[in-house]
Amino acid sequence: MTKNNPQAGSTFIKSKKHARPSASTLSAPAIAVLATLAMPLAYAGGVADEAPELQEGSKLPQVRVNANANGDRAIQGPTRSSSDKFTAPLLDTPKSVTVVTSETISQTGAVSLTDALRTVPGITIGASEGGNPVGDNLFIRGYNAQTDTYIDGIRDSGSQSREIFAIEQVEVVKGPNSALGGRSSAGGGINIVTKTARDTNFSNATVGLGTDKYARVTTDINRVIGANTAFRLNTMVHNADVAGRDVVGGERWGIAPTVTFGLNGPTRAILSYYHMKSSEIPDTGIPFNNPVTSGADVSKNGGGTPFTVDREAFYGLKNRDFRDTQTDVATVDLRHEFSPSLAVRNVTRWGKTGQDYIYTQPDDSKGNTVRYGTVWRRANTRVVDTKTLANATSLNGEFLSAGIKHSFNVGVEFSREDTDRGSFIFTPGTNNPLTGTSTCPTAGAATLYNCTTLVNPNPYDPWLYTRTQSPTLTTVETRTRAVYGFDTIEFSPQWLVNLGARWDDFSSTLFTPATATAGTVRARVESKFDTYQAGLVYKPKANGSIYLSWATSATPPGNDGGDGLDALTVQIQNLQPQKSRNVELGTKWEVLPGGRLSLSAAIFKSDMDNARVTAPDGTTENVGRKELKGAEFGLSGKLTNAWTVFGGYTYLDGIIADNGFTNTGTAAAPRWTPSPFNGNAFPTTPKHSASLWTTYAVNKSFTIGGGANYVDRQFANVNNNKYSPAYTRFDAMASYTLNQSVSFQLNIQNLTDKFYFDRVSSPHYAGVGAGRSASLMANLKF
């Protein structure tokens, strides 16, 4: 059994500019890796299905592993979080925590973080826009959580689309997250637990082929080298188009080696590196059919849902649009145990993440779609590198004082993030040369293909531009210092109190040099803030708990470090952090023999009292308020030895209680009145969402499974006049074990080929969900 390893470290990510290969073909390095990794297929009977491997150095050894009636091992779910900031088992933690295990990730056929999170209700995916970069734009309980993703407990900065080939599990913590991670939203955070070297030899590989040019190969090889050292290597090559979408798709490849020294001693060092590179054509979605309530176009009122066009309608340009990313992360993780009840840990992480892209936003804001049946091909561009360097030290342990047990974790964290953000320039520009603006009465060659038709747009229109990178870069430097402490106080086996507090010193500086058309821009924010969490836990039985908790969060100006919607500006630099608080009443139970099924339920209320809105004098001030009420239910585990389930339901009722003021007069004679959007629903917040994934072992060799995801209507703006309709999506899986070395798994995604929209948040378009696709994987052990 491995020892506990708290996940408290830091992140640094690095990327270089690189030439963009064709999105339809694999690059030379990727082809070489693919050919090498496919070699085990030549050996009959030499490979087996990949069993979920538990991460060395985490608390995953406490996972319950039982054998079903057919002798197969099945993970019931972790009893603790991977992070020592959680000072009690999950059953006794007064928070809503959902753990997506490697087993669930594998069974559902997930190949990205957003795929894996589809099984967690209450999380939605936002669309990209001018200020919102392409990547994992996540919303948790209605709040933007784009910057609230962590790797092994440390903030993962920089916009990106995260892979799962080196992920052990994903932990979703709902509710204010600032006491755990510092600056954050009120919705929660996502902690990615990575794979590290273990003290067991194994060699696993998965080779998959499917529809829509799907091809994927992953390997996971672990070797014990010496009495106390192990090496692990995870690799991935992936290529696929998006089912049902014209042109969209791409490739990626990655490698993640780790070495662990001191596997069985009191002192341990884990050295790891992560590299991933991708090239793709990003999706653009379908524009909203704008609601028209006055003027000449009122008879064309569309009601605010996306236009009814063919699912494959792609408004971008294949010869112009691209997205290249590269991520590199290196980590040194040191731990020493003074005794079984006291340990110290220090983590240093550095890296750089970057992406260059041009993607076409089908802009509906110029009146073209309603009036002319045309679309302006607005080019959103970005050239960005985010460098981070961080260090964290923590002390965790247990002690008795006056007969009362304390389980504690205290620590300090330091981080530095530097972002350089630029854009591309086109010659000639991207306006319609016939009008000199983005107005498109016609489409086609005369508009330089900057305008296209709403129905049957041609993504293969010739690109008539030259592209250069703008010499002007906006630089944002962000620094944080923090100290924190957590304690679970056990007064008796029935009563526990969980306390946590954190102090952050946050500063961020923005600089944009002067250009021919604009002067130098400088902005700076310095903010010190405290955040807290507290919870009372009552255990009527050893296998159950009832809790009441309270927690706060703080979102300072410039929260995203210059690479997202919450960027620092001159207008907001002097504002205070947005403050949120959450009250939650919940219960958790482990039922059925051996506690093989986990059940949880909670009701909660969240308020943001210091929201940034427009004040009566036209400035931006902390005078707004948001309110959220909700409830959720979750289950995970086994109903019988052969039947597993994972899923839940979330209800969210979020309103914008005070959205500030709006000018109903003129610029010269302003008249400030309360916002007409007061009382409207949160954008990107479905009132009802539910998911269920279940599998059944028919016999020792054959397992079938399926899943359903329901997401209610989602508004795309605070006006609440643009929205994506509700949808239900079904998936299916079947696996067959040939022998101890080979098994096969078939996944069918979107079984009914549902045409739905799975990404909003941009007020201009909604992202189209992938159509039906199928993939067949061979899971090998050699």
From TrEMBL:
Domain TonB-dependent receptor-like beta-barrel, residue spans: 290-751
Lineage top rank: taxon: Bacteria
Principal cellular location given in the protein's record: membrane
SUPFAM superfamilies the record matches: Porins
PROSITE patterns according to UniProt: TONB_DEPENDENT_REC_3
Parts forming coiled coils: none
Domain TonB-dependent receptor plug: 90-188
Localization of this protein: Cell outer membrane
InterPro entries: Beta-barrel_TonB, Beta-barrel_TonB_sf, Plug_dom, Plug_dom_sf, TonB-dep_rcpt-like, TonB_sidphr_rcpt
Membrane topology annotation: Multi-pass membrane protein
Keywords, comma-separated and alphabetical: Cell outer membrane, Ion transport, Iron, Iron transport, Membrane, Receptor, Signal, TonB box, Transmembrane, Transmembrane beta strand, Transport
NCBIfam families: TonB-siderophor (TIGR01783)
Assigned protein family: Belongs to the TonB-dependent receptor family.
Protein's recorded name: TonB-dependent siderophore receptor
Organism: Massilia agri
